[in-house]
């Protein structure tokens, strides 16, 4: 996920210009036998720095904290990046790579760039890191777009599979670059497919605006199923027209059924222009034209809960600088992809749900769609049923029956004195829009604050999964592995 500090148009070429530090940072999440981690790569344009007799110097500060508890710092590093004046020049970059272990969950990344030879204020950036690698499940790492790999016998922080893997330092692929190189990892294929059997790893380029597959830009490799497979690949893009695209990596079985995938957005500069397609024109009577600039921005911002990661990054990073025409096309195309026949109807249905969550779940500092409850409602719809426990005082831990022990054999069975839970709600869905059945969501009020409930745990795929969620809910009075009344409610789907 490449970010430009501090000018970027997601749907247009990213040009580095203006005053002050110009930098690109890129973070990629991975899993490993030792746990999941994030790799943060930073590239600073040397020409944007003040040059002294000793050269250029930047103070780079990186801080990562938990999204739901900003006071809990997971990583903090402050370092000086230096470059001798002899290497200063056009096209030269100051590079840095850092790796941090992070468990599954959401985190806030803070970065600060300060030119130590300048009196200008530091440039600060903020981003969200989402780690989601469920143990034992088939998964694909983030995709890293890289420079053409070079074999290396010297091991460095960038060495992988015997190659020097250096992230591509620009956010647009120029005209003279005729291939896109990438690095990606696949996890737990041996647990999902038969061990050592073959599965298909497909790389394909998709049009970002229309979500159409570019069938002339596809690569398929047969990969042996292992616990971790590291893949270095490339696609020829010499004939790819100028525009915004996804590089999509797919895991498919021998019947070509899709089981897992990841996407990475990029922009291609080219003298080859895309043919104008009538079917992607916005109708003159389209609903988007009735929106003023403020309404247009609001309609795009409120897509975050249901949007892909690439779309969310556009909303967060590039919306403020995009032109009205880009915004109009973006919004209309989003809803056309949702419903090609009636995009306006799909938009209106979402607006109705949006009005409800904003009225129901808004706080003093957040609109309803920005809260966990609002997001879950917008993504999954109306819960089948809800348990609402304001201040539950348990009479003690449930004595575990034989059925309970069989269902969860590793759970400790004992009685205890009463347990006081933080206020919580449990939402159950008979069936989710993604085909899962009997999915549960546990929301809780931190510090008894009833103004906002935060998602604590869910068994829905891709959602926050907290192993000892009931221990958190009980203010750590239960102890790990001990099941109380809330745990029984969750396990039985409160039926």
Task: Briefly say what this structure is.
This protein is α+β, with helices and mostly antiparallel strands and 495 residues long. It has helices spanning 189-192, 293-301, 309-318, 324-338, 343-361, 372-380, 402-407, 469-473, 485-491, and strands at residues 2-5, 23-30, 37-45, 56-66, 69-83, 93-101, 105-115, 123-131, 139-140, 144-146, 150-151, 159-160, 163-164, 172-173, 179-187, 198-207, 213-224, 228-236, 243-252, 258-268, 385-389, 393-394, 419-420, 424-431, 437-444, 454-458.
In words, what does this structure look like?
- By secondary structure, the chain is of the alpha+beta class.
- The chain has 4 domains: 131 residues, Immunoglobulin-like; 140 residues, Immunoglobulin-like; 97 residues; 109 residues, no CATH class.
- It contains 9 helices and 26 strands.
- It has a 5-stranded mixed beta sheet with strand order 14-20-19-16-17, with no helix packed on it. Strands 1-2-3-6 form a 4-stranded antiparallel beta sheet, with no helix packed on it. Strands 5-4-7-8 form a 4-stranded antiparallel beta sheet, with no helix packed on it.
- Strand 2 and strand 3 form a beta hairpin.
- Helix 2 crosses helix 4, helix 4 crosses helix 5 and helix 5 packs antiparallel against helix 6.
- The longest helix has 19 residues.
- The radius of gyration is 25 Å and the shape is globular.
- The two termini are 42 Å apart.
- The relative contact order is 0.08.
């Amino acid at each position: 996920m490449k970010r430009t500090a501090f000018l970027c148009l997601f749907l247009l070429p990213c040009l580095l210009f203006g005053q002050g530090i110009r930098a690109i940072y890129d973070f990629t999440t991975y899993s490993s036998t030792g746990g999941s981690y994030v790799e943060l790569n930073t590239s600073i344009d040397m020409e944007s720095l003040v040059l002294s007799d000793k050269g250029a110097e930047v103070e780079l500060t990186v801080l990562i904290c938990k999204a739901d508890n900003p006071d809990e710092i997971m990583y903090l590093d402050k370092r000086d990046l230096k470059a001798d004046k002899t290497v200063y020049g056009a096209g030269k970059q100051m590079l840095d790579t850092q790796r941090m272990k992070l468990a599954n969950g959401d985190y806030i990344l803070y970065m600060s760039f300060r030119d130590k030879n300048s009196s200008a204020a530091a440039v600060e950036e903020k981003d969200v890191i989402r780690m989601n690698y469920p143990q034992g499940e088939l998964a694909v790492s983030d995709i890293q777009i890289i420079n053409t790999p070079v074999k290396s016998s010297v091991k460095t922080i960038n060495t992988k599979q015997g190659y020097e893997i250096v992230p591509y330092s620009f956010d647009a692929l120029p005209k003279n670059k005729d291939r896109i190189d990438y690095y990606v990892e696949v996890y737990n294929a041996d647990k999902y497919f038969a061990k050592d059997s073959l599965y298909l790893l497909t790389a394909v380029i998709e049009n970002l605006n229309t979500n159409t597959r570019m069938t002339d830009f596809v690569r398929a490799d047969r990969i042996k199923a292992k616990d971790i497979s590291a893949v270095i690949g490339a696609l020829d893009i010499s004939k790819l027209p100028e525009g915004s695209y996804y590089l999509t990596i797919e895991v498919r079985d021998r019947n070509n059924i899709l089981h897992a995938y990841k996407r990475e957005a990029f922009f291609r500069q080219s003298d080859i222009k895309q043919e104008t397609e009538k079917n992607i024109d916005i109708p003159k009577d389209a609903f988007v034209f009735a929106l003023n600039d403020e309404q247009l921005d609001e309609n795009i911002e409120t897509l975050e809960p249901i949007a892909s990661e690439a779309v969310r990054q556009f909303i967060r990073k590039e919306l403020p600088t995009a032109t009205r025409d880009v915004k109009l096309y973006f919004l209309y195309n989003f809803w056309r992809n949702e419903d090609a026949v009636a995009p306006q109807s799909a938009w209106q249905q979402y607006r109705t749900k949006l009005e409800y969550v904003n009225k129901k779940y808004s706080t003093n500092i957040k609109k309803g769609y920005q809260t966990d409850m609002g997001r879950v409602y917008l993504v999954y719809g109306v819960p089948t049923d809800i348990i609402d426990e304001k201040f539950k005082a348990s009479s003690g831990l449930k004595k575990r029956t034989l059925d309970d022990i069989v269902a969860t054999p590793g759970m400790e069975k004992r009685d205890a004195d009463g347990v006081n839970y933080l206020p919580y709600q449990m939402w159950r869905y008979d069936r989710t829009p993604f085909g899962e059945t009997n999915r549960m969501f546990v929301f809780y009020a931190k510090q008894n604050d009833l103004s906002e409930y935060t998602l604590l745990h869910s068994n829905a795929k891709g959602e926050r999964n907290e192993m000892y969620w009931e221990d958190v809910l009980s203010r750590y009075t239960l102890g790990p592995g001990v099941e109380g009344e809330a745990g029984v409610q969750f396990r039985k789907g409160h039926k």
